Amino acid sequence: MRSTLAALCLGTLFVFAADPEPEPAGKPREVAVTKAPGGFARMTSAAKYTSAAELTKAFSKELAEEIAKTVNFKNEYVVVQQWAGSGGDKMTLKLDGKKVSFDTKRGLTRDLRSHFKVFAVPNGYTVDLPKMGVKDAPAPKDKFGR
Question: pTM for this structure?
Answer without folding.
Answer: 0.68
